[in-house]
């Protein structure tokens, strides 16, 4: 698992370098069938990650957002990769830095390893069950990894991170129902990583997400000891037929919260 963790870290770092070659230079934005944006950067990063993963791990199927044909690859599989070449394409097109390159490894329905690179802000996160969670600069190396330990929450003054582009009324109601001292808006899977890095306690998500949006960040947070659960309290699972996630709450150990 440690070897996989380091390999995924190098792949998302290179994916970040490719994305930055296109950042602030987007000349055309296509619209996919679900009305989400697609750029040349998404396709370039996707091409690199898929080739790197299949080359280094030929026995593990790859499911990537940008290739509909790959969505069949997880059927009947206990182990597969979920790839989102650029999570936060809206942030990317708007020339904000909160987009990420993501690879998550799923085993028996749960993320067991993942890597997230936010190249515009220079941060790379990685984690694996049994190995812990770590951060390094995007241009760093194995020796520059620093272990992540989530903060001990003050349940009377919680720090919440919420989606910048998808802040729903249900999310606002959840924040209002809890003792929240500070709310930070952020894009993409970076929100999971901020919990792992002791920069927030709680991430409520009331709104649509796909498994490739969350798998890598979920893996980092889980490796740091955190949790991602459906509203019912059951752990969020992966490998659903349509890859759609229900609403969920991500939180760090000892964080207490109430539903509205």
Structure report:
Helix content is 27%, strand content 29%. The protein folds into 2 domains: 2-147, Fructose-1,6-Bisphosphatase, subunit A, domain 1 (Fructose-1,6-Bisphosphatase, Chain A, domain 1); 158-251, D-Maltodextrin-Binding Protein, domain 2 (3-Layer(aba) Sandwich), CATH 3.40.190. The longest helix has 21 residues, at 2-22. Helix 1 runs antiparallel to helix 2 and helix 5 (190-196) runs parallel beside helix 6. The protein starts with a helix and ends in a 9-residue tail after the last strand. The model has no long low-confidence stretch (mean pLDDT 92). A hairpin with a 2-residue loop joins strand 5 and strand 6. The strands form 5 sheets. It has a 7-stranded mixed beta sheet with strand order 3-4-5-6-7-8-9. It has 260 residues and is α+β, with helices and mostly antiparallel strands.
């Amino acid at each position: 698992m440690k070897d996989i963790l380091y390999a995924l870290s190098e792949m998302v770092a290179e994916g970040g370098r490719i994305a930055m070659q296109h950042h602030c230079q987007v000349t055309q934005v296509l619209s996919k069938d679900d009305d989400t944006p697609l750029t040349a950067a998404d396709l370039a990063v996707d091409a690199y990650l898929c080739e790197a993963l299949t080359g280094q791990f030929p026995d593990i199927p790859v499911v990537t957002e940008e290739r509909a044909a790959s969505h069949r690859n997880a059927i009947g599989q206990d182990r597969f990769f979920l790839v989102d070449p650029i999570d936060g394409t809206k942030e990317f097109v708007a020339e904000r830095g909160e987009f990420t390159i993501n690879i998550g490894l799923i085993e028996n329905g749960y993320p067991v390893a993942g890597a997230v690179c936010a190249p515009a802000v220079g941060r790379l996160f990685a984690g694996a069950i049994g190995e812990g969670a770590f951060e390094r600069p995007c241009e760093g190396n194995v020796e520059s990894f620093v272990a992540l330990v989530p903060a001990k929450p003050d349940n009377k003054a919680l720090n919440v991170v919420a989606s910048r582009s998808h802040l729903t009324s249900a999310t606002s109601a959840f924040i209002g129902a809890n003792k929240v001292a500070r709310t930070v808006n952020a894009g993409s899977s970076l929100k999971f990583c901020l919990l792992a890095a002791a920069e927030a306690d709680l991430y409520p998500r009331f709104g649509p997400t796909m498994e490739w949006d969350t798998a890598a960040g979920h893996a980092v947070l889980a490796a740091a000891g955190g949790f991602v659960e459906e509203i019912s309290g059951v752990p969020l699972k992966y490998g659903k037929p349509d890859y759609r996630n229900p609403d969920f709450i991500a939180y760090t150990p000892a964080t207490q919260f109430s539903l509205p």
